[in-house]
Fold:
Amino acid sequence: MRIRENVSIAELTTMRLGGKARYVLIAETPDDVQKAYDFAKEKHLPVWVMGGGANTIGRDEGYAGVILLNRMKGIFVRHGDELIEVDQASSEELGDEIILVGMGGEIWDDFVKFATDRGYTGIEAMSLIPGTLGAAPVQNIGAYGQDVAQVIEEVKAYDLKDNQMVTLKPEEMEMGYRHTRFNHGKDAGRFVIVSVAVRLKKGELKPPFYNSLQKYIDEYRETDFSPKNIRRMVSEIRNGKLPDPEQIASAGSFFKNVYLSKDEADKAEENGIPIWRNIDGTGKVNSGWLIEACGLKGQKLHGMRVSDKAALVLINEEAGGYFDLEAARAKIVDAVKEKFGFILEQEPVEISSNA
Ligand SMILES: Cc1cc2nc3c(=O)[nH]c(=O)nc-3n(C[C@H](O)[C@H](O)[C@H](O)COP(=O)(O)OP(=O)(O)OC[C@H]3O[C@@H](n4cnc5c(N)ncnc54)[C@H](O)[C@@H]3O)c2cc1C
Structure:
């Protein structure tokens, strides 16, 4: 376990905001998790778990505690009770259906690439989502019609309540839209995810596809729906509208979409708001559409900019600190509330000593 002191949270997060964290502990093995908590306990400090910081916002006051950075690596195929390193796996072990297991510090997109390169379907539409594998189940990441909940087999996690390693099955994770047992309710923050297993099959997605993907497919008359080609298409769509975290500071979608009951969806539709309907009539409003309809797309607000390509993305162009983000957020939330009556909810979490 490596230890760093007085580290800028801005350095650790893609939004690049935030003061200093007192300690950063870099966990490279599952044992390091226990060690990090022992270290923090000895110093009477709180612990905050972080992967790639792509869904995390730092505040100006920093964090008077220990940030535990998950950097545990390794991708395996499960064969019976055995975990086989993917490089060593035989073609029999890489069969038509596999359970692919990755350590929590693996980069999510490397995991997706590994699967799609070998023809496995199930996660290809989630190509290029920044961050680590260990964070993927936390908010149940999703894109273009897929989410992690659809493929998850189990996670191994360190349970901070009972101080032991546990295995959690999907039915114990309460997974919904950006909402799980890991980030909501009494167990939020209780588990440090050490590894994630997903069940994937050789094969391909069938049309019709999620709207913007389908649009691309129609426009370019694509007929190859192999995982590798879906990955290529999704990457192209994303590169055209989402900021590359290496170049541009953001946390991706800054607000969640708004979910509506059937009655609310009917009413919103009567008022000219486009609704994505579920079979049961309930619906979803794209918050980016609401922000754009308020005339905010591309606008600069307090050093932050509402992306001119995707209004749901808030870019840190030259914010002086968290206070600028706070002011920009208030402007957007107020504008949407005033025009449509919807209250936008922030997607990224904020590091706080009170959490
Ligand atoms: C440009 C851009 C595009 C994005 N596009 C998408 C998208 O299409 N779909 C989508 O769903 N998200 C998207 N995101 C958000 C982000 O990529 C995901 O939320 C991702 O899972 C964050 O991973 P991370 O490792 O950076 O998490 P972090 O920001 O480090 O952590 C996020 C949360 O998970 C917790 N956490 C992290 N690791 C662990 C662990 N091992 N155990 C327990 N808790 C943990 C943290 O405490 C925190 O609460 C995007 C972000 C950016 C910057």
